[in-house]
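Amino Acid Chain and Its Fold in Token Form
===========================================
Purpose: to set a sequence beside its fold so the mapping can be learned.
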Amino acid sequence: MKTFLGRRTRVLAATTATAGMILLAACTSTDGGGDGSATAPGGVELVKAGRLTTCTHLPYPPFQSEIDGKVQGFDVALIDLVAEDLGVKQEILDTPFENFKTGAFLNSGKCDLAAAGMTITEERKKNVDFSDPYFRATQAVLVAKDSGITSLADVKARKARLGAQAQTTGEDYVKGQGFDPVSFESSDAVLNGLRTGQVKAVVIDYPVVQGWLKDKANAEAFRLAEQIDTGEEYGFTVKKGNTALREAVNKALADARADGTYKKLYEQWIGPYDESAASPAAS
């Protein structure tokens, strides 16, 4: 089900408003300026003065999701470090995931960067510039505990219906393995498809499954059938040619690794620290 074009874009700002349209976003402790574009330290051009505007796609825990009315997660916390270095606050814009592949919202000046647990691929590099990798991701096959399914190959042998999140590398991977998966718009929709029996198995990034299985009800209902190493690495993206902002992101990531902040945030949002998952740049 691909319903991106009908989805409304929401700004998740540092204030609340009526009807739940404006929600609370994570931000740094420093104050920024007013409206209009501006130049931050290091010659970084921003689409809004005093704001580092981040495009994301919600929900995608543990990287970004709404918790107690506030957008939080591993990606959010890392980009907060970039914003802090620039002396501004992070503002989060919830957008369709398909725009990350094209760089549309970066090119149109709606966002400074995108952070959405996005895998670095050669195809995507044609449209956007990636930061250094900040996370290694594997794919996971999740099934109901009583399904009897033990692997992706078993899903195929049983001709069981498979689900995946649309426009993701997980969906691309299973298509490459000969599947015609049911496409769901968000990670929450993927899990709900499995819960309601629309599909018998789902393939999605392993950290997302880790987050799901922390919930007692999910852990009682579902199990990990297989973890698949597809060699994927996540990166943040900026508009092509925005070297100053890309370098600012890379500096914040390098500093976070050097002073232990990265490890602390990883343990807070992902789980026990796995240096191999922190990407080769961490070693």
